[in-house]
Amino acid sequence: MIKSMTGFGKMTIETGNKKIVIEVKSLNSKQLDINLRIPNLYKEKEMEIRNLIKNWLERGKIDVCIYFDNSETEKAVSINSLVVEQYFKQMLEVANTLGVQINNNELLQTIMRFPDTLKQPSEELDEAEWLQLKAGTEKALEMTDLFRKREGEVLIKDILHRIDLIKAYAAEVPQYEGKRIEGVRQRLQEKMKEWQEIQNIDQNRMEQEIIYYLEKLDITEEKVRLANHCQYFIETVEKEEAPGRKLGFIAQEIGREINTMGSKANDHDIQKLVVHMKDELEKIKEQSLNIL
């Protein structure tokens, strides 16, 4: 199934007196780029969480944030009175030495920003809590994956529609080729009349130049290759699980044939069709970047 790389999932779990929120956001990226923000309590499980993300989402710019939802779950904080008192005495001594008058309230507020003025009791991760967190994380990743599948369905439907449009525009080209060929024939006839008036012209060289000129204007191969590339694009969508990169390469090949057709066409009506095909192809390229 085709998946987009855009997705979102959110899961909330409760364990003990904690309410833990797990949020997953996914955007397109060439590689797997994981940005993981978790409380210090879960740092020891960071690699396991990253492996879960990798197994579920494979590729993309992934932001995963795990946090406590309410203040009641935060660790109890107490003031380290001994440290604050030492800071206060030393600051007063420095102020007296320098002859600086300071406000005690403002000094205390400043000191409370210093290191180690607050202390928190250490907490160890309980195995039961980790199992709940792991299950919740997998559920959030599963929701993100489901979101990606839904987005992928919409995305690939639009892309295939644009492939059909390119094929339809290409199918209109032959109706203008009769006029184009007649124009080429007339120009060649006029040139040949001019060449006949030139003395000592090399007939073999002239024939070679005419053949080269005709081959240069012929777009039959480009039309065939364009049709083949479009069909290969569709087959890749139908057969592969994660075709994003390959679809990008095929789109480049489609663009190469369209550009060559445009440069060879030398016809206003065909050029208009080429412009339409290029427009659709640019939209395909842009959207293909978001396919896994």
TrEMBL record:
Keywords: Endonuclease, Hydrolase, Nuclease
Keyword Ion transport listed: no
GO molecular function per UniProt: hydrolase activity; RNA endonuclease activity
All residue ranges annotated as the Endoribonuclease YicC-like C-terminal domain in the record: 177-291
Start and end residues of each Endoribonuclease YicC-like N-terminal domain: 2-155
Entry keyword Hydrolase: yes
InterPro entries: YicC-like_C, YicC-like_N, YicC/YloC-like
Cofactor: a divalent metal cation
PANTHER family: UPF0701 PROTEIN YICC
Protein family per UniProt: Belongs to the YicC/YloC family.
Name the record gives this protein: TIGR00255 family protein
Source taxonomy: Bacteria, Pseudomonadati, Bacteroidota, Bacteroidia, Bacteroidales
